[in-house]
UniProtKB/TrEMBL annotation:
<keyword id="KW-0808">Transferase</keyword>
<dbReference type="Pfam" id="PF00583">
    <property type="entry name" value="Acetyltransf_1"/>
</dbReference>
<dbReference type="InterPro" id="IPR050832">
    <property type="entry name" value="Bact_Acetyltransf"/>
</dbReference>
<feature type="domain" description="N-acetyltransferase">
    <location>
        <begin position="12"/>
        <end position="174"/>
    </location>
</feature>
<dbReference type="InterPro" id="IPR000182">
    <property type="entry name" value="GNAT_dom"/>
</dbReference>
<dbReference type="InterPro" id="IPR016181">
    <property type="entry name" value="Acyl_CoA_acyltransferase"/>
</dbReference>
<protein>
    <submittedName>
        <fullName>GNAT family N-acetyltransferase</fullName>
    </submittedName>
</protein>
<keyword id="KW-0012">Acyltransferase</keyword>
Amino acid sequence: MKTLDRFLIRHASGRDATRIAGIQIRSCQAACKGLVPETKLQEMDASRRAVEWKDALGTPCQQTVLVAMKGNRMAGFCTFSESTDPEAAPATAEIGSFFVDPLAWGRGAGRDLAEEVMGQAKRRGFSQITQWVIGANDRSRRFCESIGFAPDGVVKTEDISGCPVQELRYARRL
């Protein structure tokens, strides 16, 4: 556990599953507005996601899940692990999920999570970290760039709620 400026960053547990799922759904609905049909965004099911998160958090795996807390309120979460990209260079970590509750946007939770993830990745021997970002999501792209990430030219199409979305890979040296 590490306390940063305003947020306590700690490892997630199974007890956090419902709050993590809620943040993921609310953040995705806000960030993907206009990129994915509104009906698809409204179909996102937080209770189903909570069950998936509870299972994931209760299963030993190589993924680290961190949460940003302010008092008893969870502001966001982030996951990272060794890169799953087949062409990734050795010693590359990958941020798999990075969501901040829209009510906490611009308040430092994302920056605090990113600093802790990058610090932990570096201490574990990773020399680079990547993250996939929706190409049309200007807010996410600006945030990544503000913390030292840059697009590395790799693009893929990902399915979000049944809609194809172009994602850009962002990378940063640690």
